[in-house]
Amino acid sequence: MDAGQSDELAEAYEQGKQAVFDAMNHFDELAIVERANPYRKDGR
Prior knowledge:
The chain is mainly α. The chain has one helix at residues 3-36. 77% of the residues lie in helices and 0% in strands. It starts with a helix and ends in an 8-residue tail after the last helix.
């Protein structure tokens, strides 16, 4: 594997990590909205 290829891999890895963080933040926001919803199915 040459240096150019490993740079591309490192960049793809960083983008993938960022995508995972964005997704986790999005799920956190959804969970907060769901907790604040008075009409939840479980009635809590």
